[in-house]
Specification:
The radius of gyration is 17 Å and the shape is globular. It has one domain. Strands 1-2-3 form a three-stranded antiparallel sheet, with helices on one face. It is built from two helices and three strands, in the order ααβββ. The protein is α+β, with helices and mostly antiparallel strands and 94 residues long.
């Protein structure tokens, strides 16, 4: 019974570890953080396109953006932190 308890704890810990990492729809091979462009630059770029930015965060090595786009639709989009290019997802294929 003791071994079953330990095994259950190990499985639970692995799930919690996995959830603390990339949780979104995309991952980026972004390299060292020193090579990333600032989030402010991405925000200004999107505002110029007519987006209303709600939040920008890092996820999976990408910038994850929650916003309302120029069409008034809620958006969850990913951008490469070095190039600020849109990362393709199911919602935003190339």
């Amino acid at each position: 019974m003791k071994y079953l308890y330990v095994a259950c704890l190990a499985v639970a810990a692995s799930f919690s570890f996995a959830s603390s990492h990339a949780t979104g729809l995309a991952t980026c091979d972004s390299g060292k953080r020193e090579t990333w462009q600032p989030q402010d630059k991405l925000e200004k770029m999107l505002i110029a396109k007519g987006w209303q930015i709600r939040r920008i965060k890092e996820d999976g090595g990408c910038y994850e953006v929650y916003a309302v786009d120029e069409k008034g639709e809620r958006v969850e989009a990913y951008f490469h932190p070095r190039t600020l290019a849109l990362v393709p997802t199911r919602r935003y294929p190339r």
